[in-house]
Design brief:
By secondary structure, this protein is an all-alpha fold. The protein contains five helices and no strands. It folds into two domains: 99 residues, no CATH class; 33 residues. The radius of gyration is 21 Å and the shape is elongated. The relative contact order is 0.11.
Length: 134
Amino acid sequence: MLSVINLSSIKAWARNLKRDSVALYLASRDPRVPWYAKALAVAVAAYALSPIDLIPDFIPVVGYLDDLILLPLGIWIAISLVPDEVMAECRAKAGDLLQRPTSRAGMIAIIVLWIAGALALAWIAFTYWLRSAP
């Protein structure tokens, strides 16, 4: 029973974190948000998307601690700097954006394009390799 409660609360926390991340992006584009909150939001997003971490992810356990601690902490601090009414509006917009249906056809088209690109690159590399072989 305890593990079910913990798992559901962790899932809810993750959903709220995702919604708040989108809401923070929307808030960073709002003119009512102070510049320092926008700067922190951009810094947190840049760190989240950056391939460079303070602690590399390949280090077991410790490598993911920065992602599990620093990112939520940065999001929480950035949210606390955004005015409450702006954050409430942005959370509502983010909730609507995340509820939109996804297009399976679009996903399939993107996957097919990636596969076609990889095959074309492999074909070019293979023909180049054949020409350069003695």
